[in-house]
Every structure is written in structure tokens, then in C-alpha cells.
Amino acid sequence: MKNRLLYVTVLFSIAFTSIITAQTQSGVWNSKIGDPSYNLDSGIGERSNTIEIKFPKSYDVKPEVFVSVSELDADKNFNCRYDVEVLSVSKEGFKIKIKIWADTKIFSIGGYWLAYTE
Fold it and tell me: What is the pLDDT at residue 16?
């Protein structure tokens, strides 16, 4: 019985330590008309806009970063084509590149980001 209790205690300690050492941060991002160098609302062909995100607290190692799109305001008279990509991840932050093409016109786009390390 003592061996089982010791075994369970050790497993719990390992799991708890793993949870504590993981670092997770999250936030929101958006890009819209009026932002410096915003060009997604006019023109034809491939256009892009890049947003820089700084982490509230720097990481000890480079994190994994995920982004999602939860807001999109586009011109209803044209097809909506877009790509969102994470670039230049560092311990201090990362960049989000929004790319559109053809006759797409986007007035605003935004979403959430999540960064984590193990």
C-alpha cells in the first residue's frame, strides 16, 4: 500500500511540475482602415498587411503560436479571399501577415492569438 501511495505521489508531482513549467499567453489582434500602411480595402492583385504583437511577458524559449480569425468585414460585392500567417516568432513577440488577392476588399479583420511553451 505504501508503494502505491508513493507511486501516485510521484506521478502527481511530475504532472504538477509539467503544468507549472508550461507558459501560456493569449490576446486579440486586429487590422482595420485607419491603421498605418493599411491597404486591404482598395486595389486589385495581391496585397498584404503585417501586424506586430509583443508578448506581455517574454518567454524563456521561443513559443509555439496559433492565430484564429473571428472578425471579418469585407465588401459584399467581391469574393472574399484571405490568408493569415504567423511570422518571425521570437521570445518577445511575433508578426501576423494578412494577405488578400484579386478583387477582395477587407475593411477590418481580427481574431485571437495563443502562445505556449512546454
Answer: 53
Quote the pLDDT of residue 64: 97
Is 2's pLDDT higher than 80?
no
Domains along the sequence of the chain with CATH: 23-117 (2.60.40.2080)
Q: What is the per-residue pLDDT for 118?
A: 83
Query: Minimal CA–CA distance to 102: which of 40, 50, 49, 51?
Result: 40
Give one DSSP letter per residue of 61-75, joined into a string.
Answer: SPPEEEEEEEEEEE-
pLDDT category at 50 given cuts 50, 70, 90 is: very high
User: What is the three-class DSSP state of 75?
Assistant: coil
Intra-chain end-to-end CA distance of the chain, in Å: 33
- Residue 89 backbone phi and psi in degrees, to 5: -75, 130
Sign of CA dihedral 34, 77, 101, 87: positive
